[in-house]
Structure formats: structure tokens, C-alpha cells
Amino acid sequence: MGEEANCNVVLMEAAKSPKENGHSGVAAAVTDAPASAAPTAAKAVAVVDPRLQGISDAIRVVPHFPKQGIMFNDITPLLLRPGVFKDAVDIFVERYRGMGIDAVAGIEARGFIFGPAIALAIGAKFIPLRKPKKLPGEVISETYVLEYGTDCLQMHVGAIEAGERVLIVDDLVATGGTLSAAIRLLGMRMPSFLTVCK
Q1: What is the pLDDT of residue 24?
Q2: What is the CATH number of the domain that holds 165?
Q3: Which one of 29, 37, 74, 112 is CB 3.0 to 4.6 Å from 33, fit for a cystine?
Q4: Is residue 85 within 8 Å of 78, Cβ to Cβ?
Q5: Could you report the average pLDDT of every consecutive run of 10 residues in the chain (198 residues)?
Q6: In a domain, 20, yes or no
Q7: What is the total count of domains within the chain?
Q8: Residue 4 annotated in active site
């Protein structure tokens, strides 16, 4: 699958006071132990979900796309296999259901594929984080640096309210620039660790 992770999800919680820029201030709410945490049992056995192999097999690596030197993880083959697509969504739903998540924020464009399905299944609203000039009405913007340029994310003013817990869904982690921009856009501070799926 290349060096990049195929998806990343961050659980955040909105703070109680609004910020000056018109959207809620938020702080990280970490609910899982870091991956480096030691197991409690001396001989812990890792149980691997068998669905993960099917998901991994369905992701195609495209070398040098969108430009030379980038290994692009294409999820299109996964989307063409309904059972595998369902498995991918179900794994997220199983992990985050019952955690009091109020909103799922999906980063354009592939966050729009998984985000709404996860939001519906856990009973949360969906917040689209879009590229510039795609949302009507008043928006908040955050510019960020990519490994091959710069870009910007926007969301509607008032999409998130103080005290709400937000799950951010993105498709891959390369430099972390897009995810960091989403966290800043939602008015959050960077958590001590991120939940990353490979």
C-alpha cells in the first residue's frame, strides 16, 4: 500500500467557549491509549480483524500520481466491492459507536464517502470540510501546505457548537497538513496522538 496510511480518524471535543473568529473553540479529547502503550497482560495476543485483509487488498497503489514521486492509494476498487466497502464503514462504526460523538467531519473529497455513512450509523451530524468556493453562505477558511503545494479547507460558520465531540475522517496521511488544517478549522488543538488506520 505504500508509505501513507489509508485513512485517519481523530476524535475531538468542542470546548465550552466560542472563539473570536465565529466558530467554537475546541480541545482534544483523547479516549484511547496511545499505540505505544504497554499491554496490561504479560503475554497479550493481538487479534487481527479478518476484514482488514480484504480492505487492504482492495486498495490500489498508483505510482507517481498526481505527480512524480507520490505513491497514491486509490480506494476506487474498494468502492466497487460493496462487501468490502461495508466492512470498512462497519469497522469505523464499531469503534466509535457509543462514544457520544455529535458530529463527523469529512475532508473533501474522500472523507465525503466514508464520513456520512459513519455519521448516519452512529447517529451524528455530518460536517463537510470543502475546498474553496464550494460552500454557499458564510464560511471559515484554513490554508495548509501539502507535499506538492498549498490548499485550503472551508466549513460553514456554526457547523460545530461548543461542547460537541467531533470525529474527523480523511483518506490518508502523508505530511499531515490536511488533517492539521481540519483540526485548526474546527478550532481544535492538536491531540497528543492520532488514531491512524493502515
Answers
A1: 26
A2: 3.40.50.2020
A3: 37
A4: yes
A5: 41 38 25 33 70 95 90 92 97 95 92 96 97 94 84 93 89 76 78 38
A6: no
A7: 1
A8: no
HEC sequence for 19-60: CCCCCEEEEECCCCCCCCCCCCCCCCCCCCCCHHHHHHHCCE
Residues 6+ apart with CB under 8 A from 139: 154, 155, 156, 157
pTM of structure = 0.71
> Distance from CA of residue 66 to its chain's centroid?
21
Q: Among the options 60, 147, 161, 189, which is catalytic?
A: 147
Active-site option among 4, 13, 110, 164 = 110
Q: Which helix (H) or strand (E) holds 112?
A: helix 111-122
Contacts of 131 (CB under 8 A, 6+ apart): 108, 151, 152, 153, 154
Q: Is 147 a catalytic residue?
A: yes
User: Is 180 inside any structural domain?
Assistant: yes
Residue 96 domain boundaries: 51-186
Counting every residue written for the chain, the total comes to 198
Block residue for cell numbers 460558520: 157
Report the C-alpha gap between 156 and 60 in whole angstroms.
Answer: 33
The one-character DSSP state at 172 is -
Query: φ and ψ at 75, to 5 degrees?
Result: -90, 0
